Amino acid sequence: MTVIRQDDFIDSVADALQFISYYHPKDFVQAIHQAYEHELNPAAKDAMAQILINSRLCAQGKRPICQDTGIVTVFLKIGMDVVWDATLSVADMVNEGVRRAYLHPDNVLRASILEDPAGARRNTKDNTPAVIHMEVVTGNTVDVQVAAKGGGSENKSKLAMLNPSDSIVDWVVKTVPTMGAGWCPPGMLGIGIGGTAEKAAVMAKESLMDPIDIHELRKRGPSSRVEELRLEIMDAVNRLGIGAQGLGGLTTVLDVKIKDYPTHAASLPVAMIPNCAATRHAHFVLDGSGPALQTPPDLNDWPDITWEVGETVRRVNLDTVTREEAGSWKPGDTLLLSGKMLTGRDAAHKKMKELIESGEGLPEGVDLKGRFIYYVGPVDPVRDEIVGPAGPTTSTRMDKFTDFILEKTGLLGMIGKAERGPAGIEAIKKHKAVYLMAVGGAAYLVSKAITSSRVVAFEELGMEAIYEFEVKDMPVSVAVDANGVSVHQTGPQEWRAKIEEQALELV
Predict the structure, then answer these.
(1) What percentage of the chain exceeds 70 in pLDDT?
(2) Residue 284: enclosing H or E segment and its boundaries?
(3) Model confidence over 27-84: pLDDT tens digits?
(4) Which alpha helices (DSSP H) does 266-336 contain, by range?
(5) Could you count the other beta carbons within 10 Å of the beta carbon of residue 361?
(6) Are 417 and 393 in contact (CB under 8 A)?
């Protein structure tokens, strides 16, 4: 019999969650560096450079890789010969570990979990509860895998009940483009095949706990149909030319993971869950000897990447920029922003719309005319920080508000992550506004450009309040220009054609 102490279990969960908030897995760093060196599209290469620089900064500063510090998922395999020395249930111990990790004073993590999801959507304040999958197995240890999954990538999960004769590869190739770039490629695709609908989804999520090893698989050759599918899907998806951040390029996925399970003769359930450029997971085993704590990596394993300001980069003063100046920007242009901007996400946009429609108007300090709004929910600052990691959130969620806000407030531009949908693009074109893109997965790097921060409205919304940021040389790209031309449409189209016509070598 192995005795597992309550404090050892809680401490191990908390340590793992803190660890993965600022350390990328070594295999991910190596894979994205290889993709960076291989990339031919300057825009995609630049995005991966920012991701790698951000990764090193986070490892050094022990601060979150992404402002979205995720919803916690835990896979537990509990040995039948384990005895617990505990007063809490296993689920309660997991959640206590989550609570301690997310409230750690030296590295506060963002509380993103809302209870009553179809009603009041109240923030639980400590990121609990986790999503927990428990299995009782033979043995005398507790095997634990923890992950922190961001909403932008989780929201792109897909499930299909295919016919047994359908092609899984064809379904993936058809489906990935519909996911847009909100899942922050390059990352991984986790795929579950078989079982039932819920089994396929759980397998897809669990497959993402494994390290990136597809290059080893390619070198030795596949030995099963699942391994053949991994290679076929990776090659087919990368031929789509979606590229880093959806800007077009040679690498969209770094690996494809698959788990399968026997299924009904009439069924072929397939679930696909992407993991973003802020991939976060850890594994440990408790054997009764004490807590299982993570071992810090060697920072020499991180490549020494620099981001250079090119000759074509435009410097923009947000305090004096005009609609005419913004109208001259072209899709793909790189800008360095300085000056003051406001922030606002889903909840803030909803409240602004309600206040305008009621005739009450916007709060004092929220004058959007001629200004830019940044779609962000920052992490709380620690120590001497102005603000914690403050990367962009997925912009398509604001599309439903865009036409109204542009028309009623005179807003000039928006800054966010990934593409805009048809409604958002049409509104931008109609009002001669612009949409700029910051790199998802480079939140700590972005925060270094913020020189001051203050809440100006809706403080009760926490991280979804409206802030005023002052920034210095914040790097962004023009994603949709004033004529409604989107780089997320033109970029992948161009690079897919190049890959097909020139038979470019994929990673």
Answers:
(1) 99
(2) strand 281-286
(3) 999 999 999 999 999 999 999 999 999 999 999 999 999 999 999 999 999 999 999 9
(4) 323-327
(5) 11
(6) yes
* 101 contacts 294 by C-beta, under 8 angstroms: no
Residue in the structure block whose two tokens are 């994603």 = 479
Q: CA–CA separation, 114 vs 347, rounded Å?
A: 12
Determine the Cα–Cα distance for residues 55 and 295; give it in Å rounded to an integer: 17
Tell me, yes or no, whether 403 lies in a domain: yes
CATH code of the domain covering residue 465: 3.20.130.10
Strands 131-137 and 114-115: unpaired
Residue 358 corresponds to which tokens in the numbers above? 């009621």
Report the SS3 class of residue 168.
Answer: helix
Structural domain for 340, as ranges: 314-491
3-state DSSP of 25-87: CHHHHHHHHHHHHHCCCHHHHHHHHHHHHHHHHHHHHCCCCCCCCCEEEEEEEEECCEEEECC
Q: With bands split at pLDDT 50, 70 and 90, how would you rate the model's confidence at 196?
A: very high
Both tokens of 312, joined, read 């074509």
SS3 for 81-100 is: CEEEECCCCHHHHHHHHHHH
Per-residue three-class SS string for 419-459: CCCHHHHHHHHHHCCEEEECCCCCHHHHHCCEEEEEEEECH
Does residue 11 belong to any structural domain of this protein? Answer: no
How many domains are contained in the chain?
A: 1
Residue pair 326/412 in contact by the 8 Å Cβ criterion: yes
Q: Global pTM?
A: 0.92
